[in-house]
Amino acid sequence: MTKKIIKICAGIIMGLSLTVSAGALAVNAGNTPDESGTADMYSGADDSILNIASVSKMYVTAAVMQLVDSGKVELDTAVADYITDFKMADERYMDITVRMLMNHTSGLMGSTYAGALLFDEKSRDYHNTFLQKLKRQHLKADPGAFNCYCNDGFTLLEILVERVSGLSFTEYMKENISIPLSLEHTGTLWDMDTDRQIPVYINGNVKLNPVVPQLIGAGGILSDAEDVCRFGTAFFTGNNILLSEKAKCEMAENNSVDGCLPAFGLGWDNVEKDEYKKAGVNLLSKGGDALHHSNLLVAPDEKISVAVLSSGGSSTNCEEICLELMDVALSEQGINIVHPEKERPELLTVPDEYLKYEGLYANTEMTMSISFPDKQCMLARSVTAEKEFEAQYMYTADGTFVEMSGDVSSGNAIPVQPVQAYLFEEKNGQIYLSHPEMGCMLVKLPEKQTDERMQKAWDERSGLYYYLVNGSYSDSSYTDNNRLKLCTSREAPGMVNGYRIQDEDHAGYDPIMPGSASRDISDLRMERINGKEYACLDDLGFKLISENDIPVFSNDVRSVELTSGEAGWYKIDGIKDVTIRLDIPQNAAVYVYDKYMNIKYSSYMSGYGYSIPLPECGMIVFIGESGSSVNISR
């Protein structure tokens, strides 16, 4: 660990740069000698950059608010008025306003992930095909009905900036954000050297080549911690270099609809952190997770901006460090933030009135059973899920249920630390299990009759894995979003995973709940092509092949012909002490996974070479373009 004090000026300007493994962070505080409110920061040991993930949303939000300041955009005007070729297979899209994209109330399905993050490749396909993909989608809710985090809304804002300004978003950001703030290490894939990125690590220490983010407005800005910190100063009270006071105030207003959590602003994840609000500090927060992670905190009135970026960990980890640094910076101004320790909850038996909440609940991933055995606790148990899950929660004096470690019936269970509390809510005719900070987590399912023929079709698929086939050779989805397991259960007739069965080949979410538990969803469609079955998550952009249609990687496989849009999967079964050598052509990739789908080899692993010892059991996939092949020697 190395620690450097970059600059301290009379205790008013403070810069701190810390490098840990593959991460970097910076804090910028106080009034400054120039009008921008920034400190004189340096990049330290090198000029590495990271993908700041969803903190990118603040840059596209700032760009739109500049257009609002100039009178070229109105927040409550329909998006379709600015992007005339924005259309959807749902007439309600005409009601989506610019503001709804910024505060996550648009009703869009969530995120188009296919092609969003590519290894070593810069492509315009994601941007240029985005509107065409939306044309096939429906909305999951009426525009404005509730807040639900949505990446696609910010890709639409990116396009809106281009249509209104006449510039590419990269050009607009450089001229109107980077240059005015002297952000010398900030840009997109089109004006930055993406090889300067800090490496991505998966499975602990597996180092991958740089990943190039294509979804610029939603999560594709490249920067370093000092530049992100400097960008945060643009939201200081009195700093009008980028935005008017009116625009900044509007962005910082709580846009939570009907009590939804968290307290979204325009772009900001949270504009009301209670412990800081009690101390009179208005704190703004934005985090982001891709293969890199980030967090930006701004205290506008106190003129403090804190940024943390990392490779590995999560945006939650980044925010924890940010908050610690924010507390230090505030204390230098005589403001002490009190973080009271949570008292041990008083644990009670479950009241009789809660027994009505027994039944089946669902979210976008699974169906769960909730019961109250002997009124000792709430038992939450997965019914249709890829991984089995069971947890016990005890009722507390404040009306919440807290997760317990150990067996409650033994009398030796204790609350999990940090305490995780949940409560039941009834609103809009629905029953939800909610988290006080994260909002609705599960919704109680109504009882519905299911056609036996439809149920049988899905029961026959239950337990099967489906593997991604339509990602390009450079798509990073093969590192994690590479398979789906379908699960049904006699306990939950009519459900597959968290989907409601609609017919033999279609399933959808019923009902949709407010909050982030319903983000990034897609209807599920099954289709058969040339005798092979595929699961299609069209709204996410994924197509996956059934494991029943995947052959074994036998000794006689010496060459694999590649087909565009159809990755070639093989099962590795019972192989011992076998090493293969691959001759991989350009525009192609190979991944090898163990039986737990941990990556053992990828052609994007740094410095690995082409000789691969195969696991005894696992999977191997070949991805590339038609007309080429991967040759294999053993």
List the helices and strands and how they pair.
Layout: E1 2-9, E2 13-20, E3 23-29, E4 50-51, H1 56-69, H2 79-82, H3 98-102, E5 117-119, H4 125-134, H5 152-165, H6 169-181, E6 200-202, E7 206-208, E8 211-213, H7 216-219, E9 222-223, H8 225-232, H9 245-251, H10 274-278, E10 284-289, E11 292-299, E12 304-311, H11 315-331, E13 347-348, E14 359-362, E15 367-371, E16 378-384, E17 390-396, E18 401-405, E19 414-415, E20 421-427, E21 430-435, E22 439-444, H12 452-459, E23 465-468, E24 483-485, E25 495-496, E26 499-503, E27 506-508, E28 524-529, E29 532-537, E30 542-546, E31 559-561, E32 568-573, E33 579-583, E34 588-594, E35 599-602, E36 611-613, E37 617-624, E38 629-633
Antiparallel strand pairs: 1-2, 2-3, 3-12, 4-9, 5-8, 6-7, 10-11, 11-12, 13-17, 14-15, 14-22, 15-16, 16-17, 17-18, 18-19, 18-20, 20-21, 21-22, 23-24, 23-30, 25-26, 26-27, 27-28, 28-29, 29-30, 31-38, 32-37, 33-36, 33-38, 34-35, 34-37
Helix pairs in contact: 1-5, 1-6
